[in-house]
Amino acid sequence: MNGDVLVYVETRDGAVNPSSLELLTAARQLADALGGKVDAVVAGSSRGAVEALAGIADRVLTATHPALEQYIPEARQALLRSVIVERNPAIALFAYGVAGLDLAADVAVRTDRPVIDFCTKLSATGDEIEATSLIYGGKLRAVSRARTPAVAVIVPGAFPEAQPAPTRRTITVEIAAPPQLDALRTAFIAETRPAEGEVDLASAAKILCVGRGVRDQASVAVARQVADALGAEIAGSRPVIDNGWLGKERQVGKSGSRVKPKLYLAVGVSGAPEHLEGMSGAELIIAINTDAKAPIFGVAHFGATCDLFDLLPALGERLERGQEA
Amino acid sequence: MQIGVALRLIPDASGELEIAEGGKDVDREWIDLKLNEFDDQALEEALTLKECGGATVVALAFEGLGADRLLQTALARGADRAIKLRNPLGDDPPARGAARLLAPTIRDLGLDLVLTGVLATDGINGQLAPLLGATLDWPHASAVSGIRFDAGAIVVRQEAEGGFSTTLRVGLPAVIGVQAASRPIRYVSGTKLRQFIGEKFAPMGSDADSGDLGTELVRLERPQSEGSAVMLEGDADTVAEALHTLLIERRLAKGAPR
Amino acid sequence: MAASTVVLWTLVFATVAVFGWRLRRLARAMSVSAPAARFDNPSERLRGVLCALLHQRLLNNRYSGVLHALIFSGFLVLLTAIAQSFGSVMFPGFSLRSVGGATWIAWLQDVFAVLLTFGVAMAAWQRCVTRPPRFEGSNALDAYLIYVLILAVVVSMLIEAGCRIAGGDAALGAWRPVSRGVADLLGSVGVNAAAAADGQRVAYWAHICAVLVFLAYIPGSKHRHMFLAAPNVYFRSLAPKGMLPGAPTQSADAANNDEGVGQLTWKDMLDVATCTECGRCQAACPAYAAGLPLSPKILVANLRDEVIGAAGDASERPLAGGVIQQTTLWACTTCRACMEVCPVHIEHVPKVVRLRRRLVEQGDVEPMLQEALSNLQQSGNSMGKPARARARWTKDLPFKIKDARREPVDVLWFVGDYASYDVRAQDGARKLATLLHAADVDFGILYDDERNSGNDVRRAGDEGLFELLAQHNIEALSGRRFRRIMTSDPHSLNALSHEYAPLGAHYSVVHHSTLLLELIESGRLRLRPADGAVVTYHDPCYLGRYNGGYDAPRRLIERAGYRLREMARRRENAFCCGAGGGRIWMNDGASVERPSESRIKEALALDDVRSFVVACPKDKVMFVSAVQALGVADRIEVRDLADLIELEGDARSTTPRSVRRAEGRG
Question: What is the pTM of this model?
Answer without folding.
Answer: 0.82
